[in-house]
Design a protein that fits this description.
- By secondary structure, the chain is mostly helical.
- It is 41% helix and 4% strand.
- It has 16 helices and 6 strands.
- The strands form 3 sheets. A two-stranded antiparallel sheet has the order 1-2.
- A hairpin with a 2-residue loop joins strand 5 and strand 6.
- Helix 13 crosses helix 14 and helix 14 packs across helix 15.
- The protein starts with 40 loop residues before the first helix and ends with a helix.
Length: 386
């Protein structure tokens, strides 16, 4: 089940134009959401008129409207297949990720545009969506390959750009870990332990070991980090996700001899030299980038990103992001839609259907399957009726 909102900004995308043609978006009946749903020509028009501006930045053409009028639901997928080749779709996906990653523009020496340039390159060139977190290079404004800017001896797509790292910096590297999990796995902490197993308590600093009031007995725990009585419920997972960021300073620069030690003069969770402290108690372990992501032992951020990119939850999250981009999760997509399975199962179902023929799918393949799914159409139309 999806447990987190997929937006770093905490909002969903809604289409500002639902009245582009008189009489549009006025379904009168409660629509079924079963796989047998067959949209009428008017319903197909209502649906596509709504999603078009979000996906490609324009209203339907006369030719597209004629195809939908003649073909009803059967015309939806062919039109979607042409839309995902449009430059407008490239820019829509780029903007969506920039919002979630908190990266755009320039500040000081940091180019916050680099994450968006990677996303644009992946979408424009029809590359596997996994490349957004596994790309071994960065790109400039003209889409020319350039070295990524952190100075790290490895790359992990948008995760190893100073734009992402500086835009999400914070004590104990919690902001970076949470932005990663929300954006690419659509989870928040605590996540289900089947996805991210908990670390052994004894490996953590005392302040993160408490699961109940009885364990809140030492001064470091009682007054430390403001996590109430159940610090471990989140930090037992946070700790592993934050550790690979331990050598990146506030500006996103990789510092080879960073040790993850708590600063004696800075705030709790800060290390010296504008670095952040580790969750780990043993100094030798706190200085390493090693951790465990989603059930696999990793040596650094690039290995963690590669593990994440192979997870079915990564692809299901992409489907959730696409639904949010195209129609808005505040429409018909409640946790349970009328007659629809739990949303997490629904997203998994679409992602798995794509993975059967494309194990490492492009965002275009996921978008075609998502927006042409009759359950998505029906839930959207139901939402527009509200």
């Amino acid at each position: 089940t999806i447990t987190g909102t997929p937006s770093g900004a905490g909002t969903t995308t809604t289409n500002p134009d639902t009245t582009q043609t008189p009489g549009v978006v006025t379904p009168t009946e409660t629509l079924p959401v079963a796989e047998t749903f067959k949209p009428t020509a008017q319903q197909a028009l209502d649906y596509m008129r709504y999603v078009g501006p979000s996906l490609i930045g324009r209203v339907l053409s006369d030719e597209e409207e004629a195809k939908l009028t003649a073909g009803a639901g059967d015309a939806v997928q062919p039109i979607i297949e042409t839309w995902v080749k449009d430059d407008g779709f490239v820019e829509a996906v780029k903007s969506m990720l920039e919002i979630r990653l908190g990266s755009n523009g320039k500040r000081g020496a940091v180019d916050f545009n680099l994450p968006g340039y990677i996303v644009r390159h992946v979408v424009k060139n029809n590359l596997p969506w996994s490349k957004v977190v596994t790309s071994d290079t960065c790109y400039d404004q003209s889409d020319k390959a350039i070295a990524c800017d952190t100075g790290a001896p490895y790359t992990a797509g948008v995760l190893t750009t100073r734009g992402f790292l500086a835009g999400n910096e914070g004590r104990f590297n919690l902001g970076r870990a949470r932005a990663m999990l929300l954006t690419f796995m659509c989870r928040d902490y605590p996540a289900e332990p089947e996805l991210q197993p908990y670390i052994e308590k004894t490996r953590l600093k005392l302040m993160f070991r408490a699961s109940n009031a009885a364990e809140q007995m030492v001064a470091e725990v009682a007054g430390g980090f403001g996590n109430g009585l159940a610090c471990f419920s989140c930090h037992g997972q946070f700790s592993n996700h934050a550790q690979p960021f331990v050598k990146f300073d506030k500006s996103g620069t990789w510092i080879s001899d960073a040790d993850g030690a708590q600063s004696m003069t800075g705030q709790l969770g800060e290390s010296d030299r504008n670095l952040m402290a580790s969750h780990f108690d043993i100094p030798a372990e706190a200085a390493l980038e090693k951790a465990q992501w989603f059930g696999a032992d990793i040596n650094n951020l690039a290995e963690g990103a590669a593990v994440m990119a192979k997870s079915p939850s990564f692809q299901a999250c992409a489907v959730q992001q696409l639904i949010d981009l195209g129609v808005g999760l505040d429409l018909g997509f409640d946790t349970k839609v009328k007659g629809l399975a739990v949303m997490g199962d629904f997203l998994d179902d679409i992602a798995k259907s794509v993975a059967m023929t494309s194990p490492d799918p492009t965002i275009q393949e996921l978008a075609i399957a998502t927006y042409s799914d009759v359950r998505v159409m029906a839930a959207t139309l139901n939402g527009l009726k509200r």
